[in-house]
Write a structure and sequence with these properties.
The protein is mainly alpha-helical and about 70 residues long. It has a domain of about 50 residues. The protein is elongated and about 50 Å long.
């Protein structure tokens, strides 16, 4: 199991960006530019998947975490 490194606000932003890219790609595809449309729709999967699984591999490489640290119960 992977460590969670994407916080709630970060997840919401990723979902919004992912949905926006998906809609933009769909509209571009319908407008006749199928290559760009498909590219945008595929690219939209990155923020959508990372928001869904609460894990970003790039954050791990950079040592970033947007999750609040768990306070120890003593």
């Amino acid at each position: 199991m992977v460590d969670v490194n994407v916080g709630t606000v970060d997840r919401v932003i990723r979902f919004v960006i992912g949905i926006a890219l998906l809609v933009w790609g769909f509209l571009t595809f319908q407008g006749g530019n199928s290559g760009l449309g498909i590219g945008l729709m595929v690219f939209s999967l990155i923020p959508l998947v990372t928001a869904t699984i609460k894990f970003c591999p790039l954050y791990t490489l950079l040592g970033i975490s947007t999750c609040p640290s768990k306070a120890s119960s003593s």
